[in-house]
Amino acid sequence: MYFTVNDKELDALCGLSYLQQITYLRGIRPYMDRKTFIVGIKRGISYQSLSEILYVEPHQGIKDSGSPSRQQIRRAVKGLERAGLIAIQSCDKHLILKCLLADISYCVPNKPNTKPTQEPDTKSNANYSGNSIDCSNNLSKGDTENNTIADTPHESDLSCVFLRKAFEQFWQQYPQRRDQLKAWEAFKQVNPDETLFIKILQSLNSQIEHHHTHQAAGLWVPHWKNPANWLAQECWNDELITEVMEIENAKHTTSSKKQSAVELLWDSCKDGADHFDFNFEDNSPSESSNNIIQFKGGKTG
């Protein structure tokens, strides 16, 4: 059984407990289906079977011998899920897991074997054809015509590789990266082809530039959505609000500002005030002189 562990898997395993690392490398990863990246369908697994796989024979000087308990295996699998290595798809009757970071593009296709050995072992190679990823040079019988044909990846393998690389490119470009697992599941639901993926990246670039431009201008901009929500809501189809529309909206907001009580009273009375004449220049002085009080001695007050 041959399989290759890539750099992403090793980085995710770094820092985990020994039981979690050995559970992934010995109990899960070797039995992954290379077409679906799923473990537990073609070859059933359970917490009990994982415990049996990790059995340690008693040796002198080794204290921790035997098999880990099912509870320990359960915690180890949960820890692998939190680390982003696997996704638990079912744990009712049969344990079904999906390896999220496995990438078959790290596996080099078989090169043409121009010098076949004299006595190839065909039986051992036949036993290795199964769910595992075979990166070795499989030897067939002394037929040079068959050996000169290189193995080509399956079409489904290529689509999975493209989807994973496309998601990594989207993830690195998104401004606020949160909940990578949920974003990956949403990206798989979208399942974009090359044309749609180019549109998604172009729209995301435009939104990022629009966001930075408005921030520099001192305008209000909303917070970035969660990446999973951005994908699920197909936000790459959103239209960007131009500066002209925002200025018009600002004018409308200013003109429709709430008036005070004095302004409302004046607006209601200013039309009627036009019918009154408040010009007092024509009043005669005699009318105002009637208010003068005469005192004895000729003095006025």
Automatic annotation (TrEMBL):
<protein>
    <submittedName>
        <fullName>Legionella vir region protein</fullName>
    </submittedName>
</protein>
<feature type="region of interest" description="Disordered">
    <location>
        <begin position="111"/>
        <end position="140"/>
    </location>
</feature>
